[in-house]
């Protein structure tokens, strides 16, 4: 056992443990502070359950859309390096730099009743603000680059020799994409999905503005948690927060197991 | 071949429509709002004392936090990819936690853990250190996850070759591994910095939010929107955005150049 | 050879394309129809409305009525209503939010007359309260600005003068983002006026008050949370908020200062609400003995004399008749002059120059405190 390896491991464990582990332990402690019984009934709080359903509905649309966009735009940027795509590369990072409050207000500027498109869309029966589509849009906005940021460096590193070989051997572009390209970026995409999902379920500021914070109607789980903290229901808030944390952790544990299985399978085959 | 060009064009068109509806048009609205009273009004809003103070504090904390996390992200990715120990899966699984946790909870958690009633008897509330720690929390996923997939895809062959030629592990790292990772480190750090300067929820609470003294840029912008100073708010938001954009361009272009040099 | 990842990819792509119509198919209607009442209010009053609504639903008039609620920062909620958030009944932190709604034609210009009109409040039953403090029409609840301190009041804080002593660390929300904070600062000013000081002396006092603040969180509830988490030794807040906090188990103590400002939170039926019989019935209920009793039980000072007489003993009292100032007593046009005078974003000095600005006094004092620390 090289001492440097042990030293690095220790330092990283201490850093991540202190920064992320300690708050996580705190969440568990707060959520179970009254024991398991109250935790269980808190899980069945009607407002929280409605909020969970809404968050799930939002994720089911926002995450796949962003993955599709992310993978597509990454291929575009890496395989066709023009001035435009270099600009695009940086442009899709911009949403991440915008403060969530501004995100909400900026969407309001365009899609609210007093905004650019709001009244026109309302006449067509499409309500974006204070409604489900607005929440989906805000969620997409804040998580836009998360998949491509994972995929682009990998595509660059891996190069396209395999695709070119397959192309000369006569494979069509769709087949090349699904059997070769996707395999090389599978895990980058998978981590992109977990990051995107985490960001979508955890977004607060932007959704607060766009949704109008209507209890039992447009409150996602994060808004429900925020509302609980505002109204002296800290316990209920921590229960919801633990739930969000567990979704992210469990997903990553599953990905980790799948990754491990594939690695050992490949090692066996190799 | 014709179908492919059509598919490609449609795909590009769809991507740009998606981007426009959700990001570009709203950003255009922001720019319009920022400049609809002229350049002078924009500049005036940006150079207010409170704005300058908030920006200075935000940039300082963002810089320190991103720098620390650039190194920490690389180290963590290394330990996750090149090492094997019990509990490694759990370490991997908690990295994304700062994304999933709503910022209000992060704020309350940090205030309780590292505030006046801290069980560890530290109080970093109201200080730039507190703000920096909160930023470190929310930006670690960026720096880890940007390096991790690239590290996983690197084969050992180049490194092994160098080692057999007599290079020390440090030299191998410096001359072979690090250059291969540099582009992803740069993009990850760029993202972290961009997020850091815009971060609101987890930071505003721990900062104690005293105007001019411990107010961060995002909180200052928020206060402008609530007091109906939409033009000033948009101006400050655009200024922050331009800063972030410059940073992102610098980081990304450097990363692209480095990547191109290698192929 | 199909490998597993690529199958997942195909499913993912198909799933995504199928999911897009989902977005539009499950559109919530922007306005619920039938006997639904949309309530929009400031954050502190949220739990009170929860109690009021279930009490109302137990009465015959409220039997089949449902409620849609949105509570949050007063300015943000008012802005949302302007931007299309459905609202039948609105209850905000202070009057300027109502003025905004009037400008955007959401509520009628004479919204405060609804109380006597639609609300059916008998003017003769409305008497004087707290001696010379008169009732203002259109106000749902009264409260006052109080102090919250640590249990046992270790620093012995009992009046506004104690707040500006050295070593006292005050927690109050940021006046730019919080209506609650504006009430707090106007209360400090009002206290000085009640003590027969001149406006300039009052501004001097405010200067010291703001210099002693060590935290200005963005909202009232954030300020309360920061105080409960150990920051500072005194919090300025609504009386009803402190009462609710103590009832919820927070370890803080309420101190009623000898002088303060009367917090009056306006309520109105919107133009859509007026045409909604359920909303009108609910509005009537809010001003009824039943509704006001519910509010009194939650720490609000009732605006109905009959309910106030019964519940006044559970509230703190003040130095004398003129100790509780209303905004109208501080300035004839009330908040429409107080707001720009104190909280104008731009600091504007009078023509001949002066120590204190004509507009934006607090804005100036914040800047002063920021530059001298």
Properties at a glance:
heterotrimer, A: 270 residues, MetI-like fold, 81% helix, B: mainly alpha, 2 domains, 12 helices, globular
CATH class of the largest domain in chain C: Alpha Beta
Number of distinct beta strands of chain C: 10
Distance between the termini of chain C: 71 Å
Spatial gap, N to C terminus of chain A: 26 Å
| CATH uppermost class of chain A | Mainly Alpha
Classify the secondary structure makeup of chain C into a structural class.
alpha/beta
Gross morphology of chain A is globular
Uncertain runs of chain A are: none
* Uncertain regions spanning at least 5 consecutive residues of chain C: 1-5, 27-33, 124-133
Characterise this structure.
The complex is a heterotrimer of chains A (270), B (263) and C (373). With 270 residues, chain A is mainly α. Chain A has helices at residues 3-31, 36-43, 46-79, 83-91, 94-97, 100-111, 118-123, 132-143, 146-158, 161-168, 173-202, 205-211, 221-230, 234-269. The longest helix of chain A is centred in the last third of the chain and has 36 residues, at 234-269. Chain A starts with a helix and ends with a helix. With 263 residues, chain B is mainly α. Chain B folds into two domains: 1-35; 48-262, MetI-like fold. In chain B, helix 3 (49-81) packs antiparallel against helix 9 (169-198), helix 9 (169-198) runs antiparallel to helix 12 and helix 11 packs antiparallel against helix 12 (230-262). Chain B starts with a helix and ends with a helix. Chain C folds into two domains: 36-138 and 263-314, D-Maltodextrin-Binding Protein, domain 2, CATH 3.40.190.10; 144-262 and 321-371, Periplasmic binding protein-like II (D-Maltodextrin-Binding Protein, domain 2). In chain C, strands 1, 2, 3, 4, 5, 6, 7, 8, 9 and 10 form a ten-stranded mixed β-sheet that branches. Chain C is globular, with a radius of gyration of 23 Å. The model of chain C is unreliable at 1-5, 27-33 and 124-133 (pLDDT under 50).
């Amino acid at each position: 056992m090289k001492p440097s390896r042990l030293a690095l491991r220790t330092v990283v464990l201490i850093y991540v443990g202190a920064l992320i582990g300690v708050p996580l332990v705190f969440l568990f402690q707060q959520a179970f502070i009254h024991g398991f019984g109250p935790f269980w009934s808190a899980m069945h709080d009607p407002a929280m359950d409605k909020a969970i359903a809404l968050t799930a509905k939002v994720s089911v649309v926002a995450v796949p859309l962003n993955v599709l966009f992310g993978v597509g735009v990454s291929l575009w940027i890496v395989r066709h390096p023009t001035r435009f795509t270099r600009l695009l590369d940086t442009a899709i990072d911009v949403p991440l730099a915008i403060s969530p409050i501004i995100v909400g207000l900026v969407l309001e500027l365009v899609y609210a009743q007093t905004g650019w498109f709001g009244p026109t869309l309302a006449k067509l029966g499409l309500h974006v603000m204070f409604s489900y589509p607005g929440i989906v849009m805000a969620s997409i906005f804040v998580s836009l680059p998360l998949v491509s940021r994972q995929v682009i460096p990998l595509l660059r590193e891996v190069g396209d020799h395999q695709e070119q070989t397959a192309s000369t051997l006569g494979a069509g572009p769709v087949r090349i994409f699904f059997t070769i390209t996707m395999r090389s970026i599978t895990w980058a995409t998978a981590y992109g999905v977990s990051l995107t999902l985490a960001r979508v379920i955890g977004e607060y500021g932007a959704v607060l503005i766009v949704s109008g914070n209507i209890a039992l109607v447009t409150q996602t789980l994060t808004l429900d948690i925020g509302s609980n903290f505002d109204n002296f229901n800290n316990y209920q808030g921590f229960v919801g927060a633990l739930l969000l944390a567990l979704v992210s952790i469990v997903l990553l544990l599953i990905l980790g197991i799948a990754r491990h299985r594939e690695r050992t399978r490949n090692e066996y085959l190799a | 071949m014709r179908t492919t060009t059509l598919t490609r064009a449609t795909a590009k068109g769809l991507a740009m429509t998606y981007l426009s509806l959700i990001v570009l048009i709203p950003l255009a609205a922001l720019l319009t709002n920022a400049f609809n009273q002229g350049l002078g009004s924009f500049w005036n809003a940006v150079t207010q004392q409170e704005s300058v103070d908030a920006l200075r504090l935000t940039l300082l904390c963002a810089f320190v936090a991103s720098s620390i996390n650039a190194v920490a992200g690389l180290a963590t990715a290394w330990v996750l990819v090149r090492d094997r120990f019990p509990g490694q899966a759990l370490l991997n699984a908690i990295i994304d936690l700062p994304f999933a946790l709503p910022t209000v909870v992060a704020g309350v958690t940090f205030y309780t853990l590292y505030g006046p009633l801290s069980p560890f008897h530290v109080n970093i509330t109201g200080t730039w250190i507190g703000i920096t720690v909160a930023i470190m929390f929310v930006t670690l996923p960026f720096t880890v996850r940007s390096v991790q997939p690239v590290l996983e895809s690197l084969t050992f062959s180049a490194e092994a070759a160098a080692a057999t030629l007599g290079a020390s592990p440090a030299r191998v790292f410096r001359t072979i591994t690090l250059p291969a990772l540099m582009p992803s480190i740069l993009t990850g750090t760029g993202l972290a910095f961009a997020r850091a300067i815009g971060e609101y929820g987890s930071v505003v609470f721990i900062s104690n939010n005293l105007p001019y003294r411990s107010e961060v840029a995002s909180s200052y912008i928020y206060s402008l929107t609530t007091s109906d100073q939409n033009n000033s708010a948009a101006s400050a938001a655009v200024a922050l955005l331009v800063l972030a954009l410059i940073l992102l361009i610098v980081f990304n272009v450097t990363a692209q150049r480095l990547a191109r040099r290698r192929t | 050879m199909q490998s597993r990842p690529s199958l997942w990819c195909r499913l993912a792509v198909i799933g995504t394309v199928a999911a897009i119509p989902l977005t539009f198919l499950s559109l919530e209607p922007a306005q619920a129809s039938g006997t639904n009442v949309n309530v929009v209010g400031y954050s502190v009053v949220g739990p009170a409305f929860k109690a009021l609504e279930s009490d109302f639903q137990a009465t015959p008039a409220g039997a089949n009525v449902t409620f849609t609620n949105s509570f949050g920062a007063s300015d943000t909620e008012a802005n949302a209503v302007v931007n299309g958030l459905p609202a039948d009944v609105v209850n905000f932190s202070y009057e300027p939010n109502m003025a905004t709604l009037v400008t955007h034609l959401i509520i009628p210009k004479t919204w405060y007359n609804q109380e006597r009109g639609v609300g059916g409040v008998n003017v003769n039953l409305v008497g004087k309260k707290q001696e010379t403090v008169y009732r203002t029409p259109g106000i749902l609840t009264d409260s006052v600005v109080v102090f919250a301190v640590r249990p046992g009041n270790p620093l012995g804080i009992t009046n506004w003068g104690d707040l500006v002593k050295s070593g006292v660390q005050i927690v109050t929300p940021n006046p730019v983002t919080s209506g609650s904070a504006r009430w707090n600062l106007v209360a400090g000013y009002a206290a000085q006026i009640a003590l027969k000081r001149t406006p300039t002396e009052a501004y001097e006092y405010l200067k010291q008050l703001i210099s002693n603040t060590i935290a200005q969180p963005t909202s009232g509830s954030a300020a309360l949370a920061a105080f409960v988490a150990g920051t500072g030794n005194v919090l300025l807040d609504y009386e009803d908020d402190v009462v609710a906090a103590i009832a919820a188990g927070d370890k803080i103590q309420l101190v009623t200062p000898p002088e303060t400002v009367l917090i009056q939170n306006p309520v109105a039926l919107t133009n859509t609400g007026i045409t909604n019989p359920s909303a009108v019935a609910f509005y009537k209920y809010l001003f009824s003995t039943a509704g006001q009793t519910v509010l009194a039980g939650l720490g609000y000072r009732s605006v109905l004399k009959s309910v106030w007489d019964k519940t006044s003993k559970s509230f703190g009292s003040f130095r004398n008749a003129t100790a509780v100032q209303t905004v109208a007593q501080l300035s004839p046009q009330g908040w429409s002059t107080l707001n720009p005078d104190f909280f104008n974003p731009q600091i504007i000095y009078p023509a001949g120059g002066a120590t204190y600005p004509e507009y934006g006094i607090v804005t100036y004092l914040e800047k002063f405190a920021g530059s001298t620390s």
